[in-house]
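Long-time lurker, first post. I've been practising inverse folding by hand and with some scripts of my own, and I keep getting stuck on stretches where the C-alpha cells seem ambiguous. Below is the full C-alpha cell string for one chain I'm working on. Before anyone asks, I'm not after the true native sequence, just a reasonable design that respects the backbone. If someone could post their per-position residues I'd love to compare against what I wrote down in my notebook.
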C-alpha cells in the first residue's frame, strides 16, 4: 500500500487524537497518509484515485458518509469504532494496531456490500439521484398523518401501503432502521432488498424480501409534506405524485476485514447486548 487515507469525525474529540496517533503509526512503517475531517455535506478534497485504503474513525454514521466518497474509486474501508454502535467497524481503539498490521501485510479479505441507487422523479423529470448503503426511506413529515405508497416491482403493482413510512433496505441496513421497524436481519453476504412498512394502517404490514435485480418503483400519494431520506443523512422533500425508483447500485461498497466471515453474527449479538457464549447450551454433565 502506498497511500492510506484517515477520515476523522469532527464531532468526536477522540477521533482527532486517534487520527494523529494513526498518522505517526503509519509513518513509522513507511506508509504515507492523508487526513481529512469533513462535515456532512462538505466535499472531500483528497487523492482518492491514488488511495489504497481509507480508515474511518467514528461510528456507523461516519462509515455511511465515507461510502459516498470511496465507492466511485473502489477504495476499501477499514473502520475503527469511536462512535456509539459500530456495526460496520472492524476494530476498536484498543485492538486496531494488531488488525491494521494484518491488513498492511495483506492478511485480510474484501467484503463487498450491496448498495442502493435511488432516483426521485417528478412529472417525468429527474429531481435528484441518491446512493445508500443502509436504506432509502419515504416517510411523512412533522404532521402525524399517513401517506399512501404504491409499490411496484419490475413494473407490476404489488400493493399499496398506508403508513408513516416505507423503508427499502440492503442487508447492511437490515440491522438499522429496518430492524427497528420489525424487518428481518439479513447477513451481508446476501444480495437482496428488504421492504419494510412503518406503522402500516389497514394495509400490508409484513416486510418483503426482493431479489437483487428487482426494479422497485414507489409512487407517493399524500396531501401534506413527506421526505425521501438516504441513509438517514441526505433528505429531500417529496410531492404528491412523485415516484422513487430504486435499483442495485452498479458498484459495491468494499470493506477490509481480518475477522472470519461469521463475524457478522458475533458482532450483532454483542451490539444487541447478548454475549455469544450465552447462546451456546451448556454441555450435559
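-- Answer (accepted) --
I ran through it position by position. Result:
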Amino acid at each position: 500500500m502506498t497511500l492510506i487515507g484517515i477520515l476523522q469525525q469532527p464531532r468526536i474529540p477522540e477521533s482527532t487524537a486517534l487520527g494523529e496517533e494513526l498518522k505517526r503509526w503509519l509513518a513509522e512503517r513507511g506508509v504515507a497518509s492523508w487526513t481529512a475531517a469533513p462535515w456532512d455535506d462538505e466535499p472531500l478534497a483528497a487523492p482518492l484515485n491514488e488511495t489504497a485504503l481509507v480508515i474511518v474513525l467514528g461510528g456507523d454514521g461516519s462509515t455511511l458518509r465515507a461510502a459516498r466518497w470511496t465507492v466511485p474509486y473502489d477504495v476499501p474501508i477499514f473502520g475503527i469504532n469511536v462512535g456509539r454502535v459500530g456495526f460496520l467497524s472492524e476494530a476498536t481503539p484498543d485492538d486496531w494496531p494488531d488488525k491494521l498490521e494484518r491488513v498492511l501485510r495483506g492478511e485480510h479479505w474484501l467484503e463487498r456490500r450491496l448498495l442502493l441507487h435511488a432516483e426521485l422523479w417528478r412529472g417525468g423529470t429527474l429531481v435528484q439521484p441518491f446512493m445508500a448503503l443502509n436504506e432509502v426511506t419515504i416517510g411523512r413529515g412533522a404532521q402525524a398523518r399517513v401517506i399512501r405508497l404504491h409499490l411496484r416491482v419490475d413494473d407490476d403493482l404489488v400493493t399499496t401501503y398506508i403508513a408513516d413510512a416505507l423503508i427499502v433496505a440492503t442487508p447492511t441496513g437490515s440491522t438499522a432502521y429496518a430492524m427497528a421497524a420489525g424487518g428481518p436481519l439479513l447477513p451481508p453476504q446476501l444480495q437482496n432488498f428488504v421492504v419494510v412498512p412503518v406503522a402500516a394502517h389497514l394495509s400490508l404490514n409484513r416486510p418483503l424480501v426482493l431479489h437483487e435485480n428487482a426494479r422497485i418503483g414507489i409512487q407517493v400519494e399524500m396531501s401534506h409534506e413527506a421526505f425521501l431520506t438516504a441513509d438517514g443523512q441526505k433528505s429531500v422533500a417529496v410531492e404528491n405524485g412523485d415516484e422513487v425508483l430504486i435499483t442495485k447500485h452498479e458498484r459495491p461498497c468494499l470493506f477490509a476485514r481480518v475477522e472470519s466471515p461469521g463475524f457478522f453474527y458475533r458482532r450483532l449479538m454483542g451490539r444487541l447486548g447478548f454475549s455469544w457464549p450465552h447462546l451456546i447450551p451448556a454441555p450435559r454433565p
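A couple of notes from the structure itself: The chain has two domains: 3-113+252-279, 116-248. The radius of gyration is 20 Å. Happy to go over any region you disagree with.
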